[in-house]
């Protein structure tokens, strides 16, 4: 499973929209969508932010 697939799965399990997750990560919803589709790869900072701000 790719990073993007994991993000999408976890986001859906927590019933968060891409916009909700983007706000928590300090980015935009279109960028979250691109991560989920595997179009771009995040910097190491994004997973760190997600781990600290996930809920």
Automatic annotation (TrEMBL):
Residues 7-46 form the HTH cro/C1-type domain. It comes from the Bacteria. InterPro entries: Cro/C1-type_HTH, Lambda_DNA-bd_dom_sf. This is Helix-turn-helix domain-containing protein. SMART domains: HTH_XRE (SM00530). It holds the Pfam family HTH_3. SUPFAM superfamilies: lambda repressor-like DNA-binding domains.
């Amino acid at each position: 499973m790719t990073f993007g697939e994991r993000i999408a799965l976890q986001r859906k399990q927590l019933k968060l929209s891409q916009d909700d997750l983007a706000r928590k990560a300090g980015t935009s919803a279109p960028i979250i969508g691109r991560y989920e589709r595997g179009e771009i790869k995040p910097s190491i900072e994004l997973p760190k932010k997600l781990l600290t701000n996930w809920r």
